[in-house]
Amino acid sequence: MICMPKKKSLTVSRVLALVLAYLSLCVAGGVVTSVLLVPGVFAANRMTQAIVPSLQVEGIDFDVTSLPQKSVMVARDGTTQIAQFYEDNRIVVPIKDVSLTMRQAVVAREDRRFFDHAGVDMQGILRAFAQNYFNNTNQGGSSLTQQYVKNVLITTAERDNDPIARFHASEDTYARKIREMLIAVQMEKKYSKLEILQGYLNIAQFGANRLYGVETAAQYYFGVSAKDLNLVQSATIAAITKNPENYDPSIEQNQAEAQKQRNIVLDLMWGQGFIKDKQEYETARNTPIAQTLSIHPTTTGCANAGDYAFFCDYVTHRILNSEEFGKTQADREDLLKQGGLTITTTLDVDASQLLMKAANDTIPATDPTGFEIMMASVKPGTGEVLGFGINRKFDASSDGSDQTKTAMNYMVDQVDGGGTGFPVGSSIKPFNLVAWMQAGRSVNESLQTSTRYEPSEFVCDNYNGGAQPYSGIGETWSVTNALTNSTVNPESPLDGLVRSHNTTQASMGAVIGLCRVADAYTAVGYHDAATLQTIDKSEHSYTPSMMIGTVNVSPLTMANMYATIAANGVQCTPIAMTKVTRQNGEEIAVPKANCHQAIDKDIAQTVAYAMNLGDTRSDGAGVYAKLTSGRKTFAKTGTNETSYMATGGFIPNEIATFVLMGDVQAPLQNPVANVSINGTYRGYWDGGTIAAPAWKEFMDAYADKKGWGKDIGNDYGNAASKYMTNSNGVTSIQGRTVTRSSGTSSNSSSSNNSNNSSTESNNSNQSTTSNDNTTSQGDDRTSSGQ
Hints:
By secondary structure, the chain is an alpha+beta fold. Helices cover 37% and strands 11% of the residues. It has a domain at 12-292: Biosynthetic peptidoglycan transglycosylase-like (Penicillin binding protein transpeptidase fold, Orthogonal Bundle). The chain has 24 helices and 20 strands. The chain is elongated and about 100 Å long.
């Protein structure tokens, strides 16, 4: 228990007068005058103890518990550390969590009369003056309380980016000393001795490179907590603060001087009675300092987060872009670097490690092609981003000269540190089927298809009370199926997805109108990677070729769109954090996932059914994605000409993953064709032959890691009968009667080529390849926009 001095009637002005008189005499009268004042020194200490100060320092918070300290980012398991963030590397701890020897070492070194004076040690000041006068030294004589005041003033000035205040807080003048004395007296009346000692131990600098606070020092130099510091360790740390740059023992050239300074502390502790056992004292003094160290390097930011660095960068951007963490971005950055936050993220360590492995297994970072491969995973029904995979190392300073490093997180939107998005080819097609069913159509209707479509055919008849947000602006769209450069006519929307036929997608858009396709994309979570806008119908900013993937979208957004199908139609906004807490346990609100039923669950189940057929039927485009161990597969490949190859899919209710590869820097100049990738040459690469195997490797490995058996997802993908029947016969287009309907079809037989057998033979008019399909003519966007 700390006993506080009794209040007396002396005022601050009297103490100020006393201090000024004392210092003036010291300066003007020299040592003779100082000696004359010796009898008054002891009285001065007694008088300062009696003061009830009224002095206030505007804008300065001297609360000993309110110090800037580092924030820590951890994975969803709550223990795996991803990164630290700080301006000053500091962990604040209560005095009870600092060992007794550490407290004693600091008092012995800095202020032997700390527990006797009331903030200003007049004996110490006189001793320092005498030493300075006779020996031409520069001793300060400041008490621990004064040093704490100085550190707070400096810290506040640096936080406020105020160089003038920083100068005045550290200038070598009597004015500064007097100011510190007056505030120190005030501090001693407001706080107990142990509280002030706690504040000092947490704010003082204990090493080079902005190493602050005794807990951080203990962990850095010795790998222990402050409460476990022994005698030698305590003396080592206590010695550093006199000159952090030159006494830091982790710097090899400092070690001789650091050991000398440590031994000075041990001598002081022995002389002041803190060490009782002479053998303990001598043993400590003779211990080489290098043998005591166990350096645990600390870093700030995402640069040293290893394979977690891209996710770390994403979370950092989410914090800086979210108003939950402050009114301005500067406020949010201050909170991140000084708020002592514990940021619990959504990162799944298993997912992160396996995503990175699959990416690098598929295309090593040093591959001569220089191709990037990017992967993102989301947990369906939650919006939780589980991890990223890429065949690059994160380097915020990268200028692009080293192909193995990048400063850009290509998996996310531009505002979150990514690019402007990618065209994703046929991997967009499952969402066309969503639009088709939302318009009340059967997936088994037979559609007349063509290789030429006029923009006017995609107008939005009977849309939203007669609105015409898309009015057919543009040129004739020439579109064919991959390899055959032709079409299959007629064909159902179901077969069009299973076989990934472009011409059938075009026919679907012409039947229901492009506005309904745009609505479906928006409903499942689409937005542009550069603008964050959904497809803007009011400005005709979308074109029919979006139905075969000519969009600008990030891999994370695509993974999240697939997650909507995987969660029975529940769409969520991607989130990176589940909880953020301050040091005192107070929680800060984090951005919400806003999960909601975006599309009818029967539609989601029917789309999943069709995706599974595409992975299992002999004429399916996704056979390379088929999972092992008998697990049911839900995946869709995609190819954007020869620039980007993609695959997206999911394990129901567990994980949705999207893969994209290509040359991000020069997709047109460096095509994915007639090239060896990771030692394998192909004249024709597509989503099935490069992206699907990466997707499959990861999904199989992740399922195995989580212990999911072959029955995982087997009860998913149950097609709804109302979307499987057909009453309209053949729906025709291209100059003939176009039948459009907003009602649900029913009570009819299914179309040709739409049976559910996985061994169905190919139609004679279609391509027999299992490779994915893409447009070969008229693609209105072929570059990534990166």
